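lol ok so funny story. i was supposed to be doing the assay writeup but got distracted and ended up predicting the structure for this chain instead. priorities right. anyway since i did it might as well share w the group, maybe its usefull for someone
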Amino acid sequence: MRIPQKPPVKRDICEMLKSEERSLWIEILTRRTEPTVDGKYIHWDKLRYYTTPKRLNHEQWWYCIKSAREKLYKMLPFYDKDGHGFKFAITDYIQEHLHKTDKGSAGEILSSNQEINSSDRDRYCISSLIQEAITSSQLEGAATTRKVAKDMLRSGRAPKDKHEQMILNNFKTMKRIQELKNEPLTPEIVFKIHRIVTDGTLDDPDNAGCFRSDSDNVRIEDQYNTVLHDPPSAESLPRRLDLLCEFANGGGCDYFIHPVIRAIIIHFWLAYDHPFVDGNGRTARALFYWAMLKQGYWLFEYISISQILLNAPVKYARAFLYTETDDNDLTYFIIYHLDVIDKAVSQLHDYIDRKSAELERLGGQLEQMQYLNHRQQALLSHALRHPYHRYTVRSHKTSHGIVYETARRDLWDLENREFLTAFKVGKAWNFKPVDNLGNKLSATDGHSNTTNY
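and the output, tada:
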């Protein structure tokens, strides 16, 4: 990956400006310039290809933009390995997206079918955990296919190799994060998360849950061995992690930081420090989820940011590099991450709307299935919305006020038509919806009246 070109130093531009004619110097100093270009927070690496305003060259234009940004900067209790502080700016674009995140992630999921919100909650949560576990691992090089990984997690079988172990570890980590969301962050918790993330995947198991050493020589390189990031020294890591935990728990600043921005900075901070031999990216993303859930953004139990990151991994890496190459300006990474959140939340809302429309369509289709009586139609309608529900002859008899034999016939007829699966609990037969009930109903001829009963 190509490292972005570093912007010209503002002090050097200032020296060059002194040699220009006085009128231009005064115009630049008094010019009203926005911190963005066409609403975008542009890095010098891109700006140098844009058409400049009249009378200005690219360096002079950058001087004006950088001056406008400096008026917005908020300094953080977070420093690079050379002691230079990180900072960020709140632009109109950021404020708009924070508002969208507040509305879309901390409130109620709205859909055309409100029943879906409560009845499918657990299923959505498990699906999201599986999705995040798989894609977060794939970002770090896991090569297992999504289908195989899903089958492993749903069946509970043991992982067959390191790649599957990474995915299982991420799944366990995401479940653990939900249990830890009400606890303050401590170094011990970070180590605990890292141990879960890396269980059975490190060359040296002793590296799990402890800082790397200088002899580990941990650096981030691309496929051509170009060094993209050389993290801070190992001896500085204990103090840096203490500062990170203090910041994560709401400290470190004498001004308000929006909770979403704080969570994004936590993500960047741990990834920048790279305190472990391996598993830093997965641990950083887990801490982001912890921070979001801790602040009441409960919708993040149901979305996968790593899926978005995996679709464009170069943009993810570039967001880090833009920050490091432009005076530690975290605004680039914050804007990128807000876009990822927006896409992930939109995908979930789109899924819920599609699911609601599907349930409505299947409900209408059930009414056209003339070979099913109204009791069977009602049960299948309920099963579509409650895929893990269990039915018995007694429960069906009670629900519809019918005799035992009629209830028994209803359920066994649905089992013979492969809409339900029968299994015994003790001596009693139980029935559950088949895994692909929606697809099964969609493929069924509504006028068929054949049965093997």
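Residues 74-352 form a domain with the Fic-like fold fold (CATH 1.10.3290.10). Residues 109-119, 449-453 have pLDDT under 50 and may be disordered.
back to the writeup now i swear
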